[in-house]
Amino acid sequence: MGEYSGRNAVITGGGSGLGAAMADLFAGEGARVALLDIDGARAEAKAEELRGRGTDAFALQVDVADRASVAAAVIAVRERWGAVHVLCANVGVQQFGAVGKLTEQDWTWVMDVNVHGVIGTVQGFLPLLQAGEGARHIVITSSASFFQLGIRMAAYVASKFAVTGFGEVLRAELAPEGINVALLFPAGMMTRHIESSIAARPAELGESRFDQADIRAMMAGADIDAAAHVATAEYAVRNLLAELRAGEPYIITHGNYRAQVEAQQRAVLRAFDRLEAAG
Length: 279
Hints:
By secondary structure, this protein is an alpha/beta fold. The chain has one domain (8-278): NAD(P)-binding Rossmann-like Domain (Rossmann fold), CATH 3.40.50.720. The chain is built from 11 helices and 9 strands. The chain has helices at residues 17-28, 40-52, 67-80, 104-131, 154-174, 193-200, 212-221, 226-229, 233-236, 240-246, 258-278, and strands at residues 8-12, 32-37, 57-61, 86-89, 136-141, 179-185, 188-189, 230-231, 250-252. The strands form 2 sheets. Strands 3-2-1-4-5-6-9 form a 7-stranded parallel β-sheet, with helices on both faces. A two-stranded parallel sheet has the order 7-8. Strand 2 (32-37), helix 2 (40-52) and strand 3 form a beta-alpha-beta unit. Helix 3 runs parallel beside helix 4. The chain is globular, with a radius of gyration of 19 Å. The protein starts with 7 loop residues before the first strand and ends with a helix.
């Protein structure tokens, strides 16, 4: 009998990477798990693996950028379980490139998935969370990029600022209902993120470009120590359950960028100091 025994968890991006690591975590504590992923085959393979360990798990092929696809998943989960206790809105695609080179199609794709996909997922499953009892959590995957900005990542960073703001308001609105909203800030991970992003881009929006020069520029510009910044997905979620249990609003998974966050906050406070001095 684990902490989540008899509880139901829905995880987008659950077929691999961070989502799959979350699935392992909740399944290990007795939860029933629904894995939603645009790569249906990978989601099913992960669900089969979990079933082999005794978990009640099932997979659904879902494109979170398509509201009809999300709505169909909501119906399937409602018919199977009736309520949800944990929703991990864990989805994100990446398109590197200098601001001047990002196309309208690049922005459309990243925002459709990373922003509208998260919002649509939360709005779709919210009634099932409200139908649940006891502790309930929404985990929204933001990014360390929210704090540690990197050049050549404008679309991705902008999308993570948007979902972070969405999560902040959502937390305030749902607190009276006893639904906790946690923002997760993972740094770099050894996952299929780039590969899955390229594969997921709709053909009508053109090819997803990937240039190692953009990665090198981003790492250098953000002064990133790869040894501290990059970890496995399993390592990134090691403290997730404890953080949710404590109801913490922000979850830093790994990465050595505390000094940059403190410097940013000091700069904001200095702006207030100048305002007050000016009268």
